[in-house]
């Protein structure tokens, strides 16, 4: 092996660089899921230590129309999304629905993954640091 090259070990942790295991950065889907989950947790009226993809925004986390609008505004800004139509917004029942929509929008070029400054700007509004990606 050439000096400085990276050897992929057969483990889930990532490549072995100079004898140290390196965890690769999160994929786009993982980044979106992490950002959506953390933003939902911060905005949710009914605070939950852990937000899961199958939790219902309205039923489980206490969202109502104003909080849903706040979440939508922040997600649109964070991921540079176009404003969602009311028809699309009405289909977003669970946290996982929101994540899937944003993954699709980003994959199809109608949104972008945010950089560290954009994450910081949105999460600072809630007095929180953005998640490490």
Automatic annotation (TrEMBL):
Domain of life: Bacteria
InterPro entries: ACP-like_sf (IPR036736), PP-bd_ACP (IPR009081)
Gene3D superfamilies linked: ACP-like (1.10.1200.10)
Residue stretches making up the Carrier domain: 36-102
Pfam families registered for this protein in UniProt: PP-binding
Name under which the protein is recorded: Carrier domain-containing protein
